[in-house]
Design a protein that fits this description.
Layout lengths: L1 H15 L1 E6 L2 E8 L2 E6 L5 H19 L11 H12 L7
Antiparallel strand pairs: 1-2, 2-3
């Protein structure tokens, strides 16, 4: 049991490491996510913005991997009514 726990901690530690580096004037980030190396540009010249871009990208990947969806915003009644009418128009009989 101790060996398995140590290996899990080691794997988790590797997933949490982050690397920021500069190529030209733009910051890039590199991290591991489930064994795959993710290397992308932050499209920013600011190190702080690059850190936040990396956190945001990692969060986005974790949410999609774990199938966590964002709550849907309420639709306007007029838009919902139009959508409903378009889907039902083929099934409505003319009188």
């Amino acid at each position: 049991m101790g060996e398995a726990r140590r290996q899990a901690a080691e794997i988790q530690g590797r997933q949490q490491t982050m690397s920021l580096y500069k190529r030209g004037e733009v910051w890039w980030y590199k991290f591991r996510f489930w064994g795959q190396v993710i290397r992308e540009t932050s499209k920013s010249e600011s190190r702080t913005v690059a850190k936040e871009a990396e956190r945001s990208r990692r969060r986005e990947m974790e949410e999609s991997f774990n199938r966590i969806s964002k709550p849907r915003t309420a639709q306007l009644f007029s838009a919902a009514a139009e959508t409903w009418l378009r889907t039902k128009i083929a099934h409505l009989y003319p009188r």
